[in-house]
C-alpha cells in the first residue's frame, strides 16, 4: 500500500513539474502531429485586449490537421474559432481539439489569448505570400468579385449572385435590421474580409472597411442600394448613399473582359493592388492604363 501511495505521489509531482515547465509561449501551430510553424508575437493587443500571435502563410492541403502548441513544453490544444475570415475552410474546433483543413491554400492564423475575454483563433487568407490575393505580385487565375455578408433580419447572408456588387452596387431589402460587411474573393481562393475598425454606431450611413476589422455597418428598414468604393489606400468604403468624388469598385467592368483584348490578358497583384496585364501594358480594374 505504501508503495502505491509513493508511486501516486511521485506521478503527481512529475505531472506538476511538467505543467510548471510550460511558460507563456512561444506559441505556434502543429501540423499533422509533427510539423511545427512558429507564431511570433504580433502587433498590439486586439480591441478586446487579447495578446496576438501570428503564423503567416501556412500552406495547407485538404485533410491537414492543425493544433496550437506551446513550444516551451510541447503542450497542444485548440481554442474557439472566430466566425469570420476563412473559418469555413476548416472543420473541428475547441471541442474536437483540432482543426481539419477542407480547402487547400495559404492561410494566416492569429492566435488571440486573454484570461479575461477568452482565447480566440482568427483565420484569414494568407497575405504577402506571393501567389494568393494581396500577395505581392503573384499571378491570380479566376474572376475577382465583391459580396456583402453579415445578417439581414436575423438571417445569415452568404455570398451569392444576389449579394454580389455589380459595378460597385448591390441591392438589399431590410424589414427590421441588417449588419453588413464585405468579402473580396477570387475564384479558387478563400477570400478576404473587410470590416469596420470597431463599432461605428446606428447613425452611420457609410463606414471605412479594413482587412481584419471586427465590426459591421448597421442598416435600418427599407429597400437600399449599397455602394462600395475603393479608398485607394487598401481600404474600402461601404455606404447606403452615393458619395461624390469617390470611385466605385468594379473588378471586371464592361469593356475589360479578357476576350476584348487583342491578346490574352491576365490578372496579377502588384503591391497588393489588382492589375490587368496585356502584353507590356498594365491597366487598373477600371480599364485605365497605368504603364
- The radius of gyration over CA amounts to 23 Å
Coarse morphology: globular
Global mean pLDDT: 79
Measured by DSSP, the beta-strand proportion falls in 35-45%
Any key phrases for this structure?
291 residues, mainly beta, Immunoglobulin-like, ten-stranded antiparallel beta sheet, six-stranded antiparallel beta sheet, 1 helix, 23 strands, 7% helix, globular
Q: How does this structure look, described?
A:
Helices cover 7% and strands 42% of the residues. It has 291 residues and is mainly beta. It has two domains: 24-125, Immunoglobulin-like, CATH 2.60.40.3620; 146-248.
Layout of strands and helices, then pairs:
Layout: H1 2-21, E1 27-31, E2 35-39, E3 51-60, E4 65-70, E5 75-77, E6 90-93, E7 98-101, E8 105-113, E9 120-125, E10 139-140, E11 144-152, E12 155-157, E13 169-174, E14 178-186, E15 192-195, E16 206-211, E17 217-219, E18 222-230, E19 236-239, E20 247-248, E21 266-270, E22 273-278, E23 281-283
Antiparallel strand pairs: 1-2, 1-4, 3-8, 4-5, 4-7, 6-7, 8-9, 10-21, 11-12, 11-14, 13-18, 14-15, 14-17, 15-16, 16-19, 18-19, 18-20, 21-22, 22-23
